[in-house]
Amino acid sequence: MLFSKLSDLTKKHVSGNKSGQNKGYTYVDAAIGSRRAVRAFANTPVSAAVVKEILNLASRAPSGSNMQPWKVYVVTGKAKNDLSKAIINNKAKQALEKSRIWKYYPDVLPPLYKARQRKIGWDLYGLAGIKKGDHEASKQFRNNNFKFFGAPIGMIFTISNELEVGSWIDYGCFLQNIMIAARGRGLHTCPQAIFAEAPLPIREILMISEEETIVCGMALGYIDNDAAVNRLETERSSVNEFAKFIK
Length: 247
Ligand SMILES: Cc1cc2nc3c(=O)[nH]c(=O)nc-3n(C[C@H](O)[C@H](O)[C@H](O)COP(=O)(O)O)c2cc1C
Hints:
Layout: H1 6-18, H2 24-33, H3 48-58, E1 71-75, H4 77-88, H5 111-128, H6 135-146, E2 153-160, H7 165-184, E3 188-192, H8 199-206, E4 212-221, H9 239-242
Antiparallel strand pairs: 1-2, 2-4, 3-4
Helix pairs in contact: 2-7, 3-7, 4-8
Flavin mononucleotide binds at residues 36-37, 39, 120, 145, 190-194, 216, 234.
């Protein structure tokens, strides 16, 4: 069911609470708590209607002045394969400068963040069976990223070049909403900034204008529970480490 108006959603929420049969937070906590980056998907299809429903719900995300800066390209089937192939076979690296690319990480990461980055990297490579220095295996893993890790649905997100960092905050809210809404439907996701590194083939295949910046991609589908990479359990620092309560 597609919710077209906020009032429809509100009604559903209120009636859910009134029935007394379920506690809304249990479902919300389960959806947030069970979200993780999944890097191997089953080839079970996901219908366009479900993707639409998720995007529709996700668009309830807040945004400064309600600007809703998101734009989504959903790829499946042949279009998805063509996109992956074009990126993996892309030779036009020298032309990259012409296209706007954003920078995820600083050139030098402070030690705390470097340590966290290394941990996830090695944990993931360990599960994937990739040994240090095995460039071929690393390349395969990277290419798998560009294949949306085998998910039936791939999404590419763009934002207008004319918008500022505030709209990128809004974008994060939107992306998280997609990932949570997916969990509510038994689906998993992997947000993929790696796609921002390949703007040229993406622009070409999806006919994206130079006025838009590629924010990231996302894989969406059902988890492959047999895949070792999906056994990754990431850690978080405790609330006491990142929050200060001041009276
Ligand atoms: C904006 C964004 C971009 C990301 N890009 C990638 C990516 O390109 N490839 C990938 O495998 N994981 C990517 N990740 C997933 C992170 O590595 C992952 O969220 C993090 O290690 C924490 O693990 P968890 O999501 O399983 O809790 C990205 C996450 C975010 C939020």
